[in-house]
Specification:
Elements (H helix, E strand, L loop, with lengths): L4 H8 L9 H14 L12 H8 L3 H13 L3 E2 L7 E2 L18 E3 L8 H14 L15 H13 L9 E4 L2 H12 L5 E6 L3 H9 L3 E8 L2 E2 L1 H8 L4 E4 L13 H6 L6 E4 L23 E5 L1 H5 L5 E4 L2 H10 L9 H12 L6 H21 L13 E5 L5 H7 L5 E5 L12 E5 L4 H19 L13
Parallel strand pairs: 3-13, 5-6, 5-8, 8-9, 9-10
Antiparallel strand pairs: 1-2, 4-11, 6-7, 10-11, 12-14, 13-14
This protein binds pyridoxal-5'-phosphate.
The site of pyridoxal-5'-phosphate has 14 residues, from helix 7.
Length: 463
């Protein structure tokens, strides 16, 4: 895949800040983009001349940056061809982050399974399974039991919903990919929150859409700006409920005012993780045409791989037609178990919420103790804090942190154009003791960076 000079210029962002010669800073920034997966393996970079023009620097500087990357094994060159991205696998420190079992993994923001609850749900599901044996078991929309249970979950929250408004998917990410492939054409524009969930970015760019980011700040959503941007977009994707990564929840008054001009996908993956107040109202109560995406990955367990789309039956028909290109349906046992969990109101149980609350508080406390100049507002729900550092070190910190026994997801993975170099998402889904230890390790990694150390770890996957 060829990457244009303008795309590289957007990704490197504010590379000119910082000490050292310009070619060194540029090669460092490109190396971090490669390690972070934002410049993917095999991608063909622009020529030195084009890159120099796009960045407004001399060709000598661009050439020197590329040469450093070639020398360290991050670029492969051939005569009369563009340099392509590679990784120097022969270097011992070039192992993926998080492969050492003593490493604390802060790159995943997902709770562990509620063992007994899940066990009981699967036992009940196995009893019901024989009912399905007479049929083939492939159902593009999902089992009747689960579609009704999800519809009822919406009705209980004040949104009239019938089973034929529901399609069951293999998790929310599958739902986003299916919606992106079905609703978008190349060069369409998708309005996104900024920052947002990294795999949603990938689903939309994978459908060759362009992204139109609208900032979500510590004071919430800018409704006027969303309206303005919605007029030029073909689709909007918003995480209104305990947003990943910031934890923000759209207020009732913002929900009442927001009327997007384009079709809007609302990601309700975190809805049930209200830690300090009530579960928010479904967005479609206010905007009946909203396409809602849900999942039990955070309210029960990611390993279930069960999600859904709530939409008008006509749209679900289109999705049903498109689905077999990539998969033929969702496993029946998991659907039956999820229906039991929803019907018995055992999703996001009191123990899950209690643990998340005390872990969130332990994480905040550890930050105050070990990283007192890092600002991390305490969210009212969800699974993560969005921590902001005074200095733009996020990608470098992610690349060195595994040397200190912790993995993190760097801020720029949650945005476009190299934004969020001062931010790190810190999930509170691990036990409090591990969170405290992780933050003390992160503080050590940060001190090492300040002394001039560099890391070379490729990032662990984010969820
Ligand atoms: C906002 C958001 N949407 C979607 C997903 C994907 O969820 P699932 O595991 O159901 O595919 C996640 C998972 O982290 C998420 O945080």
């Amino acid at each position: 895949m060829k990457i244009s000079s303008h795309a590289v210029a957007r990704m490197v962002g504010t590379w000119q800040e910082g000490p050292g010669p310009a070619h060194q800073r540029l090669s460092d920034r490109l190396r971090l983009l490669i390690l972070d997966g934002r410049l993917s393996l095999g991608a063909a970079l622009p020529s030195e001349r084009d890159l120099a023009t796009a960045l407004g620097i001399s060709r000598t500087t661009a050439g020197a940056a590329y040469r450093t990357l070639v020398e360290h094994g991050y670029l492969a060159t051939r005569a009369r061809a563009r340099a392509t991205v590679r990784l120097p696998h022969d270097t011992p420190s070039e192992r993926p982050a998080g492969t050492d079992p003593s490493t604390i993994d802060l790159s995943f923001a997902a709770p562990p399974a509620p063992v007994e609850i899940l066990h009981a749900a699967f036992a009940a599901a196995l009893e019901q399974l024989p009912r399905h044996f007479e049929r083939h078991g492939y159902d593009r929309c999902g089992t009747a039991e689960l579609r009704e249970a999800v519809a009822d979950w919406y009705r209980r929250r004040g949104l009239s919903t019938a089973p034929d408004h529901i399609m069951i998917t293999n998790g929310a990410q599958h739902a986003l990919g299916l919606l992106a492939r079905t609703l978008l054409s190349p060069r369409d524009t998708v309005l996104i929150d900024h920052p947002t969930y990294p795999h949603a970015i990938r689903a939309f760019t994978g459908a060759r859409a362009r992204l139109l980011p609208v900032a979500v700040g510590t004071s919430g959503w800018d409704i006027a700006q969303l309206h303005e941007a919605g007029r030029t977009a073909q689709l909007a994707y918003l995480i209104t409920d305990f947003h990943n990564p910031t934890g923000m929840c759209m207020s009732a008054s913002e929900r009442r005012r927001l009327r997007p001009a384009c079709p809007t996908v609302i990601d309700e993956t975190m809805t049930e993780l209200a830690l300090d107040g009530a579960t928010p109202e479904p967005f479609a109560v206010h905007v009946p045409t909203a396409i809602s995406v849900g999942s039990v990955s955070k309210s029960v367990w990611g390993g279930l791989r069960i999600g859904w789309i709530r939409a008008a039956p006509a749209l679900l028909d289109r999705l049903e037609q498109a689905r077999p290109a990539t998969d033929l349906g969702t496993p029946v046992v998991e659907q039956l178990a999820t229906a039991v969990l929803l019907n018995e109101r055992r999703t996001a149980g009191p123990d899950t919420l209690r643990h998340l609350r005390s872990q969130r508080d332990a994480l905040s406390q550890a930050l105050t103790e070990h990283l007192p100049d890092v600002h991390a507002p305490r969210p009212a729900g969800g699974v993560s804090l969005w921590a902001s550092f005074p200095e733009p070190i996020s990608s470098r910190l992610a690349a060195i942190a595994p040397d200190y026994g912790v993995t993190i997801a760097a801020g720029p993975r949650f945005g476009v154009g190299g934004a969020f170099e001062r931010h790190v998402r810190l999930p509170y889904t691990l036990p409090s003791g591990q969170l405290t230890e992780a933050i003390s390790r992160l503080a050590r990694a940060r001190r090492a960076l300040a002394r001039g150390a560099t890391g070379t770890h490729t990032p662990a996957p984010v969820a």
